Amino acid sequence: MINKNRLIKLTQDLIRINSENPAGNEAEIAWFVKNYLEDMGIKSKVYEFAKNRSNLVALIKGKRQNRSLLITPHLDTVPRGSNWKFPPFAATIHQGKIYGLGATDCKSNLAVSLEVIKSLSEEKEVLGYNLIFAATADEESGSDLGLIPLLNKGILKPSLALILDADDFEIIVTQKGLMHLKVKISGKRAHGAYPWRGINAINIAVDILKELGEKRNHYGKNKYLRPPTMNIGTIKGGDKVNVVADWCEFELDFRFLPGMQAEQLLADLKNTIKKYSKKFKIEIEGVQKPYLIDERHFLVAQLKAAIRGVGIRPHIKGSEGATVITFFQEKNIPAVATGFGSAGCAHSANEYVKIDNLYKGAKVLERFLKNSNL
Question: For the whole model, what pTM was predicted?
């Protein structure tokens, strides 16, 4: 049975452990989780792909050894920032909410997972499948030291995955892809009093960016996602005000829909740049494919049923931003995301989670795990 007071205390204990990323150190919170699990007789293992970048993995065996479900929240938070009404590591309770860094993203989901595992253990519940629990590092900086190597090295090989990193019982079934890149434009240096003697790379960049901003690509529609976007994240160039700039570079953030390809976006970008410059270089900084799972998939259906079972109306949604859900696609592992944080306050000062969300979230997750037929 879910113990509300124990869940509240556990959430507070987790918030009080600093796991900001950067600088990046999940060791303390990973070992807290390890000790918590071992107190109930559940063995776990810590994996590190850099010093103190700790990931915790536990296996709870069920009746069928050939089927497994992964549940995975993350351990790290963004940096605390400033302008907090309540201290970011105090885990203050005020008007039915627990305030603190990571309260919504993602220590509420971590606490819910642990409380549900504790409840199942107390009831001596044996699930019909193996349950894999992975609390991962480095999610806030791309997961290169967390979920990605855990999957690539075969440490995690679940049949299905439930990512616990969302708000207000949303069920995430689709997600935009992303491509981050840097464009470097070369010009010709000259004295600023004689600009016709040079080639101004900044002017070229402005022309390119103007056309990109006006471009309207043909794309399909997704009822859960907004149209594709392009954001100019940074731009810099030139050495001095009285010198024709012979260099300029800018970074672009593309977000695109399922069915679209990063390779085509890149080809279109190159064709645009070639209209204005013969000397340029594109550096790809990161690519994630878009994700889509059929909302009729039984994983989605059973999650909807669990949410309805505690009196909440489930909402199918898409994610405009990048989450770890796409990494499972590359391994052909069906995955959805849900979570119990409070919408609109992740990564903000005075982040909080509603206690009611915590308690109902634990009931949803327990119901889902017990009733899932994998």
Answer: 0.89
